[in-house]
Design brief:
heterodimer; A: about 425 residues; alpha+beta; B: about 230 residues; alpha/beta; globular
Amino acid sequence: MFNRDRWKEILEVLSSNVFRTLATSFGVGWGIFILIILLAAGKGLENGIRADFGDIATNTMFMWSRNTTMSYKGLPKGRRFSFKIEDVQAINDNVPNLRFISPRNQLGGFGSGNNVVRGLKTGAFNVYGDYPEIIRQEPMTITSGRFVNHNDIQDKRKVAVIGVGVRNELYDQGETVLGTYIKIQGVNFMVVGTYQKKDDGGGEEGQKEIYVPFTAFSQAFNMGNDVGWMAITAHDGSSISNLKEKIVGVVKEKRKIHPDDKRAVGYFDLYEQFNRVESLFGALRWVAYFVGVLVLLSGIIGVSNIMLIVIKERTKEIGIRRALGEAPWSIKKQILMESIFLTIISGMIGIVFGAAFIYGVNAVLDSVGPVDMFVNPSVSLGVVVSALVILIFSGLLAGFIPAQSAIKIRPIEALRTE
Amino acid sequence: MIQIKDLHKSYKMGKNSLHVLKGINFNVEEGELVAIMGSSGSGKSTLLNILGMLDSSDSGEYILDNVPIKDLNETKAARYRNKFLGFVFQSFNLINYKSAAENVALPLYYQKVPRKERQEKALKYLEQVGLKEWAGHLPSELSGGQKQRVAIARALAAEPKVLLADEPTGALDSKTSYEVMDLIQKINDAGNTILIVTHEPDIADMCKRIVHLKDGVIIEDKKIEQIRAEQYV
């Protein structure tokens, strides 16, 4: 392998016809270039869509109550019901591998009137009664103060964490926020923190929310034990999609809902959506590899062709070598190494140009600002390594047929060619 | 050194079979200088190819230095050629992008001789054929006689048991031919066994024994008084 004479010979052969070598290597370089670009574009799209998901815990389902559509145990159909706070415990007891269960009650919402007052200013906001864990499921940045904690839940403290959108509407520029009071549907809550959410396409709406402790909310607004909505996250490694049937089953049993009543409990499986997008990325990667490898294939055929011509030209030389006692395997190795060397070098050039191209695209993206659904196209080291593996394999493939035909040349025939 | 018994060889040309060698029997002792003569089509080149393991016989026995040569695969044949035989061709067959020294070192490379030793030996054999100062030159920079001398040096480099020369002077003028023959005689004097295929009587006369082939059989096999080539040089 690392034989000086062999390498010397490889270089001699490849440099004996420089233009031909360059033209051949262009095919392989181009193939790998396309492969890299396609993979990088796929990665860019993937990054873009992932950025839209943000750092929401994706292994999560949301669940809410609707009207029953079947009568059960003497209860009529069309009954309106609510989850109860003890359902949370029941789910926890009956379904394994759950990380967080966050019950929530809500005031306000789309199209509702003003519900929050501070001095002379009023506004319409979503007000959530939540548990502290919600911040792990629906990430937000606390810009000042703190988020709701377990002591707040325990003591039913009337405290509130408001979004930047809320602050902008209810407070003047530069006014102190922490420690002041806002009146939510006639009940005073002390502001203990402000948050900002990543702009996730929800626009302003996400910043116009108020979080208060679940228990305080229930008491203040007469919710009793009712729970309007739950966010349930499973541990990593066990998919919420597999657990959701069980969770819904537990709730149905507790709430005396017919087990076959499909419409009584509404839910949204974020993980399933996420997986669907994930499998789309997977498919994109496959397409990139498929197209890239096909383009590469034409390059490989080019190399193979040239190697055949080189062998034709060197028929006599190979005959002489055989007569002098070179083993067929040694000749085969020589041809294969020439072919692999040529593919790898030209592939490297393709990779370098591909990387430069991606670098250029990134520079352009940076200068024109963010583009929708396309962020930071890039190829990982893993892709480069797999490209190299593909190249070595291609080189072997390209050299195989010529090498085979080289050792088929019988020295006596080779020497006869004048 | 060489024992051949009842050697047959025929080539298939479509439906016809051409019987080229029809039972060859002969022995070569160590240190002999044998000329194999015959008109074209007499089978002399085929015989040399079989002796050189470049071709295989249909039937018969071939023993080289007490090693029976049969059932050779290509790898084994290559090893035997490298170990036992040195070739000199009519058209020199040097590798044209390698210098004279590299050409001479080639068989040693296949013997896996270390690089340094290879170069030393190559120079030694080039010196023996009087071309030491041409070591770095490419074959295209050498004259015909010089090329053949490089080829002889290359054949000697592997220190073979037998040197096989196929019309070594066929592409050379008389003067150069005699120079080459002088070299061959000197190598023979040093104890090397040499077989030369030729159709030139004057070249054959410079050997010690002439084997005459006609239509695939030996019609004459005689020892002769060697004519030294140096008197013509």
